[in-house]
Amino acid sequence: MLSEKKLFLFDIDGTVALGDVLLPGAAEFFQEIKERGGQFVFITNNSTKSIADYIKKFRQMGVSTDPQNFVTASTASAIWLRKHAAGKSIYTLGTRSLIRELEGHGIRVTTDPDTQDISFVLVAYDSELTYKKLTDTCRILQTRSVTFLATNPDLVCPVPFGYVPDCGSICQMITNATGQVPHYIGKPSTDMVDIALRENPFSKEETVIVGDRFYTDIACGNASGVETVLVLTGEAKKTDTMIHTYTPTYIFDSIKEVKKAWKN
């Protein structure tokens, strides 16, 4: 039952916030979770911001958080790279914030396509994207023997006026040009859920994922054995045909309605 959940794994964009504005009821929900002895963790595929950036962002929106409240695609990517690419040079198409985050985890990052020992190419949602970055990435993938990685498969990112292209759409451009398809590290991979469960004293049965996308949030929950809540304030709609492929445990119009159902 939803009322028995203690650990809430929230997506951010389209789920609890649009741009730099919290959706109605979100701040109160976070507070009540803590008051009832639970915990909330944001598991976001958005790699444009570091955890420090997210803490600042939520503080500006009136919510106090700390590093334990976040597991991002940047975190998951750094853990994957430490395991599979230790000591290797990683050419990264991403924001400066992402690069700082990876370097903070000891990852050898380069943005110079002429670096001699590049072994991996990592593509992320990049709000600082340029055509040169795309061209350099395509050149590396077509002229070197490297592994193609991406932080997340999200096609769009919700913003106040609608949507903008996310990492999945950037990767589609690169795939169209090079014929190469990346290995995606973020949701629907279960890595971020596994990290959150390791770092908090709650069982899978006490945990729920709350998100706005079938093919990332709901698919992640299904793969990890955790119940899911789909909210309709982001990408997914109730009439979406994906509902037959990725079945959420619950569907609500908004985070405010989730809070009401949890309290009852």
TrEMBL record:
Entry annotated with the keyword Lipoprotein: no
Molecular-function annotations in GO: hydrolase activity
Coiled-coil positions: none
EC number(s) given by UniProt: 3.1.3.-
Membrane spanning residue stretches: none
InterPro entries, per the entry: HAD-like_sf, HAD-SF_hydro_IIA, HAD_sf
Signal sequence region: none
Keywords of the record: Hydrolase, Magnesium, Metal-binding
Keyword Cell membrane: no
Pfam families tied to this protein: Hydrolase_6 (PF13344), Hydrolase_like (PF13242)
Cofactor(s) listed: Mg(2+)
PANTHER family, alphabetized: 4-NITROPHENYLPHOSPHATASE-RELATED (PTHR19288), HALOACID DEHALOGENASE-LIKE HYDROLASE DOMAIN-CONTAINING PROTEIN 2 (PTHR19288:SF46)
UniProt record similarity statement: Belongs to the HAD-like hydrolase superfamily. NagD family.
Role noted for this protein: Catalyzes the dephosphorylation of 2-6 carbon acid sugars in vitro.
Protein name: Acid sugar phosphatase
Lineage: Bacteria, Bacillati, Bacillota, Clostridia, Lachnospirales
